[in-house]
Amino acid sequence: xxxxxxxxxxxxxxxxxxxxxxxxxxxxxxxxxxxxxxxxxxxxxxxxxxxxxxxxxxxxxxxxxxxxxxxxxxxxxxxxxxxxxxxxxxxxxxxxxxxxxxxxxxxxxxxxxxxxxxxxxxxxxxxxxxxxxxxxxxxxxxxxxxxxxxxxxxxxxxxxxxxxxxxxxxxxxxxxxxxxxxxxxxxxxxxxx
Length: 193
Prior knowledge:
- By secondary structure, the protein is an alpha+beta fold.
- Helix content is 31%, strand content 39%.
- The strands form 2 sheets. It has a 7-stranded antiparallel β-sheet with strand order 3-4-5-9-8-7-6, with helices on both faces.
- It is flat, with a radius of gyration of 21 Å.
- 25% of the residues are buried.
């Protein structure tokens, strides 16, 4: 006789408890790895593939929280962090501002980003666009002839609620051996020593 009521109460407790549990533990992540460029990122399961506000491939949830990535390679000379920083600010962001897509760009914080296999720089940037205010964490990485930009972005109203998830996504950025390096390693036998 009380079974339906107990089941209803149990479901309500389960649903109400799921939110805090996910906030503490965090969502399950899915890794995305590009063997050609050697970058590995992660995004919460269930996010869908889109382009971010800079036009880069990105995974996004229904609230507009996203992680995007761009990888580049050049032959002639290695990349440098100052060069990549300038390209991000004047090219990626500056071009969007000149086109009227961004109304303001404010760099809140800039610091080194530690990553095995490369050198990185992280910039926290506030953006204002037609869609509203966005908080972004931007990781710029140079690894000789490879350059990477990872942008984690969220609408300002979701900034606090997603702070831990964003930090976790930044922590999951990895550099792997590129396919080209792996092929070269297999092609050259080790020198007996």
